[in-house]
Design goal:
By secondary structure, the protein is an alpha+beta fold. Helices cover about 25% and strands about 25% of the residues. The protein is built from nine helices and 17 strands. It has helices at about 15-20, 30-35, 65-70, 100-115, 150-160, 195-205, 285-290, 305-315, 350-360, and strands at about 1-5, 40, 45, 60, 75, 95-100, 120-125, 130-135, 175, 185-190, 210-215, 225-235, 240, 255-265, 270-275, 320-330, 345. The strands form three sheets. Strands 7, 8, 9, 10, 11, 12, 13, 14, 15, 16 and 17 form an eleven-stranded mixed β-sheet that branches. Helix 4 crosses helix 5. The longest helix has 16 residues, at about 100-115. The termini are far apart.
Length: about 375
């Protein structure tokens, strides 16, 4: 018999969802069969899987050690009563010794934390981690061998509390918003399940203000709010934005997008913009501005090669100049999110961005 005590990072979810994390190699049919036969119990009683877990609940599995190891990916050291999120802690969930695959994952987290340089923390508490990502770093893995900010974040948490490894079989902290590899700026991370759910809800409900700075080609003299329909070509990892749903020319169904911008400084060749990302789709800012004739400087995918070549020669600019500079949180009176209520966090632009801003807009004055 194996027993696990539900902690804060496991509570608030359905039992069947938890079981898929606790026994990731078991199929749904097997899990529901074990629930029906009382080989999996909740607080000593038969369960259906729809129950919402609370802190302190006991989930027991009546499996042989071999069966448990097969479906969990962890080798049990005899019967256990320790807790991945509760009082026992320990490096591995339920007191189980890690198998090679689990050891490899832990190694990836530590390696990412040591290897990735230049990431700074703008804010941290028990639920949230707000980071400033430099260019050249993936937010999340694109392929199995990648190293990303997501692994760096978990590695950082492990460096402060190695016992946190015990929770990783049933809960993994995660980044919530995704920036392209060569887009810099603010990335939000959820350290707890409740924090992760709150951030994802803010993004889904669009209650979070997300602002970017960029330099685009051409003069944009007035603020505007533009809408369109984004179509994605997955094979080419490229999107197009059209004014109507029928204008994208893609087999994938177009989705509506909404982008607002305001000029900060303007010359006859370039505009320094602040952009508010109202909807959040892949490459939205880059493709939307390109669709209205004002692509970002340095953007090899949607920009103008002649301009990019000149800026690469003069300044070494080899990527799109786009920086997630500011995020504003909604007002929350109490409960989760109240620590961030109404607050604004800013991330300074990278040095190359600051240099281009100074040299391309020598007479710049901030707009109201």
């Amino acid at each position: 018999m194996q027993s696990v005590t539900i902690g804060a990072n496991q509570a608030g979810q359905r039992l069947d969802k938890f079981l898929h994390k606790y026994l990731p190699l078991a199929g749904s049919g097997f899990l529901y069969k074990m629930l029906r036969k009382k080989n999996i119990t909740l607080n000593g009683k038969k369960a259906e899987g729809r129950e919402i877990l609370s802190v302190g609940d006991q989930v027991c599995t009546f499996f042989s050690d071999e069966t448990f190891g097969k479906f969990s990916g962890r080798a049990p050291a005899g019967d256990s009563d320790s807790a991945p999120g509760g009082s026992s802690g320990g490096r591995n969930s339920g007191g189980k010794a890690p198998l090679p695959a689990e050891e490899k994952r832990l190694g990836e987290y530590w390696a990412a934390y040591r290897r990735l340089q230049g990431i700074t923390v703008l804010y941290e508490d028990g639920d949230f981690l707000i980071m400033n990502k430099p260019i050249g770093i993936l937010t999340q893995k694109a392929a199995p061998g990648d190293v990303s900010l997501n692994e760096w974040m978990i590695g950082r948490l492990l460096s402060g509390d190695p016992a946190f490894a015990g929770e990783l079989s049933t809960f993994r902290p995660s980044v919530c918003n995704r920036l392209d590899r060569n887009t810099s700026g603010i990335v939000l991370g959820g350290k707890s399940l409740a924090g992760l759910q709150y951030l994802n809800r803010c993004i889904r409900e669009r209650s979070l203000g997300k602002f970017y700075r960029t330099i685009c080609i051409g003069a944009l003299g007035e603020a505007a709010s533009v809408r369109g329909y984004l179509s994605k070509d997955s094979m080419r990892n490229q999107v197009t934005v059209a004014r109507t749903a029928e204008g994208g020319g893609s087999a994938e169904k177009p989705v509506p997008v909404h982008t607002a911008y305001a000029p900060i400084a303007v010359t006859d060749r370039y505009t320094l913009l602040e952009v508010e990302l109202i909807t959040g789709k892949s490459h939205q800012i880059r493709a939307h501005l390109a669709s209205i004739g004002h692509p970002l400087i340095g953007d090899a995918k949607y920009g103008l090669e002649g301009v990019n070549r000149e800026l690469r020669r003069r300044y070494g600019l080899s990527h799109q100049l786009l920086h997630a500079c500011r995020v504003t949180f909604p007002e929350v009176l109490s409960g989760m999110g109240s620590a961030l209520s109404g607050r604004t966090f800013t991330a300074p632009c990278p040095e190359l961005f600051a240099r281009l801003e100074r040299e391309l807009f020598p007479q710049k004055t901030e707009s109201d």
